[in-house]
Task: structure prediction
Amino acid sequence: MNIMAEAIEKNVEELEQVAEDRRIFIANLAHEMKTPLTSILGFADILRIKRVVNDEERQ
Result:
């Protein structure tokens, strides 16, 4: 019975470490994706505004 309890305790510790690693990975990924995504969205907005202005000039 003691062996089973030790195995369960070891698995719980490993799962807790995996959960912590996942949390850190997601936090870093969110930060790393935010910076380039902001630039992409900014350029897309500029292109959208330019297109609207060009369409208005044609009419």
About this structure: Helices lie at 2-58. The chain has a mean pLDDT of 84. The longest helix spans residues 2-58.
